[in-house]
Amino acid sequence: MLSNLNPLIAAISALLPGLIIGYLVRQVLSSRKASQAEAKAEAILNESKSKAQDILLEAKNRALETLEEVKKEEKERSSQLSRIENLLTKKENELESRDKELRIDKASLVSKGQELVVLKSELEKNRQKQIQELERVASLNKEQAKAELFRKAEEEAKDELYKKIIRLEQDNKEELDKKAREILTLAVQRYAASQIADTVSTIVTLPSDELKGKIIGKEGRNIKTIERLTGVDIIIDDTPEALVISGFDPVRRQIAKLALDKLIADGRIHPAKIEEMVEKAKAEINDKIKEAGEAALFETGIGAVDPRLAYFLGRLAFRTSFGQNVLLHSIEMAHIAGMIAAELGADVSVAKKGALFHDVGKAVDHEVQGTHVEIGRKILQKFGMDERVIRAMEAHHEEYPYATLESRIVQAADAISGARPGARKDTVEIYLKRLEDLERISNSFDGVEKSYAIQAGRELRIFVTPTAIDDLGALKMAKDIAKKIEDEMKYPGEIKVNVIRETRAVEYAR
Which residues lie in coiled coils (predicted)? Predict the structure, then answer.
């Protein structure tokens, strides 16, 4: 048993020294590594302390520099405050000295004012004494003496002043009259235009005399249809290649002329075609009216206005006043008013517009109640015309006061245009007025559709609504209208009242 243990003991004995030596070596190595780490840590610590000292020194240096700058700024501010304080002290001293001077001056002025009051009182007393003494010596009071003085001065200068005033008035009046005559003569001479207006008739040129028979038609049915539809008289005589349209209403004459021109161009002339062409002519007459208004604006150089206002102006082309075409009269007035305004230094544009639109109310005076001046004012205001133009046109018949120089110029241009020899004819105006009154009387009856005064007023052709007036009613209306014409009008000869009741039934086969 022991013998078996010996080898084991020998082996342990051999291993034990090696284990001891290995342990010792490990302990030695561990102690060396620890000493090296401690040395490294100590080096790092020393380096950190050195850097901290450097940073601390740098911070102290910057703090010292900042402190020096603050002290420097504080010193500068202290010096500035000292200077400001010195200035304020100086100003305060100056103000105190001025205040003292002002108090002294005030006291001096107060004393002088008191002295002046005393002197004024003494002067007033002396003046009153002198006035009383003068009144005593002259036996007159103040008012009486003044009146006597003025009376004597007036008597001495009265004759001389009167002569001077008369002489000045005569000289000025002669000079003004001479200047006015020069201006008016120059205006009339510069606008020496002739006016030839169709008063009651219009001539239609025919390509050949053969067309006269076609226009008359079988048993006169074509010419009767034209006269019935347009309300004019067609006069066909021996005049070669021409016929005459007679009627007091220029619009009707123009419609008849347009319809005849269309029928002649078409070549087919019969009642149905005549009705068609008359309706087309009525539609085209509005374009003619608009063209006439735009042409008037272009001719006078006024420029564009509201298109509806130009339409009203164009309607004046189919209106006459005492035989004078109203549109031509207005154009002539615009030229004359512009020349006069230029000579007098007035507004040329306002004067020309006021003259051109002065009779615009006549375009609808038969449709709207009131004078043509009042109607014209309302039309111009409605379409935004310049208020200066309205003031210029409203006084041409002295219904309104002359508000501006342009209003007097328009009135003068109206007088010049109407007073030219041959421009107006009173007899024609009376004749046209009689025809208008005939139609007005007939249109005042209920059931009347339209009426035409033809044959120079010797016949009144009245068309009634067939559904409102029967045959007996038409007879009664003819008698009533004739009776009213006899009561209200004066006329030579007799007037034929022709009441026409026409019924048509129209149907289409499809």
Answer: 53-178
Pairwise CA distance, residues 430 & 491, whole Å? 11
User: Closest by alpha carbon to 374, among 365, 366, 383?
Assistant: 365
305 alpha-carbon distance from chain centroid: 10
Alpha carbons 446 and 456: distance in angstroms, whole number: 25
Give the whole-angstrom CA distance, residue 458 versus residue 494: 6
Cβ–Cβ < 8 Å for 478, 497: yes
Crossing angle of helices 326-344 and 307-315, rounded to 10°: 120
User: Distances from the Cα of 394 to the Cαs of 79, 336, 361, in angstroms?
Assistant: 84, 18, 11
User: Within its chain, how far is the Cα of 494 from the centroid?
Assistant: 53
Q: CB of 375 within 8 A of CB of 368?
A: yes
**β-pair type (242-246, 233-235):** antiparallel
| Furthest-apart CA atoms within the chain: distance in Å | 195
The model's pLDDT over 309-357, given as tens digits with 9 standing for 90+, comes to 888 888 887 777 666 778 888 888 888 888 888 888 888 888 888 888 8
Q: What is the 3-state secondary structure (H, E, C) of 306-369?
A: CHHHHHHHHHHHHCEECCEEHHHHHHHHHHHHHHHHHHHCCCHHHHHHHHHCCCHHHHCCCCCC
Assess contact for 184 and 412: CB atoms under 8 A: yes
